[in-house]
Amino acid sequence: MRVHWPLAVVASISMVACAPRQPILQVPEFKVQSVALRSLTLPGLGRPAVATLSVQLRVHNPNPVSVRVARAGGRILLDDLDVGTVNLPNVDLPAGGDATQEAVVDLPVTLANLATFVKVGRGEAVPYRLEGSFTVDAGLLGKPTFGPYVVAQGVLKQPRILP
User: Fold this and answer.
1) Per residue in 138-156, pLDDT tens?
2) Largest CA distance in the chain
3) Nearest to 157 by CA among 43, 34, 68, 3
4) Which domains does the chain have, with CATH numbers?
5) What is the pLDDT of residue 10?
6) Least crowded by CB within 10 Å, which of 84, 89, 116, 159?
7) Are 55 and 130 in contact (CB under 8 A)?
8) How crowded is residue 84: how many other Cβ atoms within 10 Å of its Cβ?
9) Taking a C-beta distance cutoff of 8 angstroms, is the pair 158, 85 a contact?
10) Per-residue model confidence as pLDDT tens digits over 39-69
11) What element of type H or E holds 119?
12) pTM, full prediction
């Protein structure tokens, strides 16, 4: 049997082109380790009122190659109220591995969000959501941006720090 190589190559390329494709990079997975209100300061002496929030996330890389999560950030919502922005530090993730990211964020306290921060400070349960996007630097595989989408959500309940 005589094989026509050019025809065999074209046929195999065509079959590969028809096969379902997996994305080159899978989206890294974010899981909340902790969210906490560290402090709530009142305005005074030219300083605005500020709530300091700490957000700690575990990031998992489902890819068979190491990647760098860069420019991760978005909006923090407490009780469905947008209270400010968060920018997470860049993190290098080994292939199939995990890393922890932490951001400490100073958020402005306004008349619109004061009651929400007081609820958190008094130990009441308040739903939170982190909406944002991030870029994955995978070297030669590219730098895709994922989002915007809900990166993490849950209920913030902590020990009482306010009377």
Assistant:
1) 888 889 999 998 988 999 9
2) 92
3) 34
4) 26-156 (2.60.40)
5) 46
6) 159
7) yes
8) 17
9) no
10) 999 888 889 999 999 999 999 999 999 999 9
11) helix 114-121
12) 0.77
